[in-house]
Specification:
Blueprint: E1 16-23, H1 26-42, E2 46-53, H2 56-59, H3 65-68, H4 76-83, E3 89-93, E4 105-110, E5 118-122, E6 139-141, H5 145-154, E7 159-161, H6 167-175, E8 182-186, H7 187-193, E9 201-203, E10 217-222, H8 226-233, H9 238-254, E11 262-269, E12 272-280, E13 287-295, H10 305-308, E14 311-312, E15 315-316, H11 322-341, H12 344-357
Parallel strand pairs: 1-2, 1-3, 6-7, 6-8
Antiparallel strand pairs: 3-10, 4-10, 5-8, 5-9, 11-12, 12-13, 14-15
């Protein structure tokens, strides 16, 4: 990649090629193409090439994600390519990125969040029903401990079973056999694929809170690559950045991950950012849940130069006030500390032990 990027404010672009890394799945390509299209509009003289590759999480399909034991299931191969300079930036689903990134990498952009809620996709034979009205003993497919724990707690008449694979694969497993009465998927993925007609029910936070960073696209880059960092910074959505900083700080302080059921719900309303977080036992019987809020400023503004490249749980957002980024991170840490004081550590430790033993 050559240097000299100055659009959209100036016209100093020189002809160059920027390579964007992504996973090979259809959804990953759609998401990456949407980011590339935004960049093309901002930097019309730059050529953006997509480099697709498979990750560990794409290759191991016979185990639940929580049982594989690798923190970077969907990111490691992409980060290796970034380190070797085979690609210049990588588009991820933010929920796949660990809260502590490898040295030398940073999240250079957090784009506007799609709807973060989970969706119920019913087997065609159950059209018109809901989780409430499905018969006792109906089998629900989900690959997420978080979803299973919350839904077991809320819908005790249902049974739950792991289902792996990309969106296409999971929908095929649902439609072509009678094994599952329904499966639970992120609504955002279905919407991005253009499959909104498959959504039978949206689960509100009272039924099922979402994963940290769910429905949010993030762009990872090399921390010292100033041209790329500057180019990507214009993609940041202030509200989403602050919500996700709070969520990621919450998860990191809890030392949670996909091997334990941790869920969040965040909202930014005017100058207030609220965060609800919860941890669950695997069967959903135990839950520690609390809500906290803080004051923020979502307007864009430039801090003094010393703060521009400050990182908050891996996220750099130099166009947002440092005080707001600090407040969002503190909110996540304070909420996690409150949950730990109220017994969350014991719940998480037992959940992790039981999951490892299964």
């Amino acid at each position: 990649m050559s240097t000299n990027l100055s659009a959209p404010d100036g016209n100093e672009n020189t002809s160059q090629v920027i390579r964007i890394g992504t996973r090979k799945s259809q959804l990953a390509r759609i998401q990456t193409d949407s980011v590339a299209e935004k960049l093309k509009q901002l930097y019309p003289e730059v050529t953006f090439e997509i480099v697709a590759m498979s990750t560990v999480g794409d290759k191991i399909l016979d185990k639940a994600l929580s049982k594989i034991g690798e923190k970077s299931l969907f990111t490691k191969e992409l980060e290796n390519a970034l380190e070797r300079k085979e690609v210049d930036l990588v588009v991820h689903s933010l929920k796949d990125l660990p809260t502590s990134l490898p040295p030398g990498f940073t999240i250079a952009a957090v784009l506007k969040r799609e709807t973060p809620y989970d969706a119920v996709v019913l087997h065609p034979k159950n059209a018109g029903l809901t989780l409430d009205t499905l018969p006792v003993g109906s089998m629900i497919g989900t690959s997420s401990l978080r979803r299973a724990a919350q839904l077991k707690r809320r819908f005790s008449h249902l049974e739950f079973k792991n289902v792996r694979g990309n969106l296409n694969t999971r929908l095929k497993k649902l439609d072509e056999s009678d094994e599952y009465s329904a499966i639970i998927l992120a609504a955002a993925g279905l919407l991005r694929m253009g499959w909104e007609n498959r959504i039978s029910q949206i689960l509100d936070p009272e039924d099922c809170m979402y994963a940290v960073g769910q429905a949010t696209l993030a762009v990872e880059a090399r921390a010292g690559d100033d041209d790329i960092m500057e180019m990507l910074s214009v993609l940041n959505d202030p509200e989403t950045v602050l919500r996700c900083i709070a969520e990621r700080a919450f998860l990191r302080h809890l030392e949670g991950g996909c091997s334990v059921p941790v869920a969040v719900h965040s909202e930014a309303r005017g100058p207030q950012l609220s965060l609800t977080g919860a941890v669950y036992s695997l069967d959903g019987s135990d839950c520690v849940k609390e809500t906290m809020q803080t004051s923020i400023d979502t307007s864009k503004g430039e801090d003094e130069e010393v703060h521009r490249n400050a990182s908050h749980v891996g996220v750099m957002a130099p166009g947002l006030w440092m005080a707001s980024r600090d407040a969002a991170e503190r909110l996540g840490v304070d909420l996690a500390s409150l949950l730990l004081q109220r017994g969350a550590k014991d719940v998480l430790t037992l959940a992790r032990r039981l999951n490892d033993a299964r």
